[in-house]
Amino acid sequence: MDLEKIKLLSESRIETENQIEALQAALKILTGKILAEIPTEEEGTNTIQAGKFKITTKTPINRKIDPAIWEQVEPELPEALRNVITVKHKDELSLNLKMYRALEHVAPENFSLVSKCVTAKPGTVGLKIVEIEL
Length: 134
Known about the structure:
Radius of gyration: 24 Å
Number of strands: 7
Strand order of the largest sheet: 1-2-7
Helix content: 40-55%
Largest sheet: 3 strands, antiparallel
Number of helices: 4
Strand content: 25-35%
Distance between the termini: 55 Å
Low-confidence stretches: none
């Protein structure tokens, strides 16, 4: 066992880890600057082309269902609309997003009822940059 060699390798590893942390911080700053320049949707995907780069942003909305409120709201909904929220596994409730969105336009009064048990928070905007052939 060569302790001097282990020491040098350890120093190199620590230096590399520090460089990675610095690069990750720089990447985070650049991502923020790019996102500040690109209009993003309230929810969904947006793609633009800037020169030889295809840039896609994805803006998620994280939705949670309050089971206690759903228990109160469910009986007030017509039977055909109750599957807007279903039990997934281990008693976890799942929102049928397509149906939930449709309710807003087709049956606003029912959408309002279901919305009482749904909490929506914006998620972290994702950024993907791909170099393309011109």
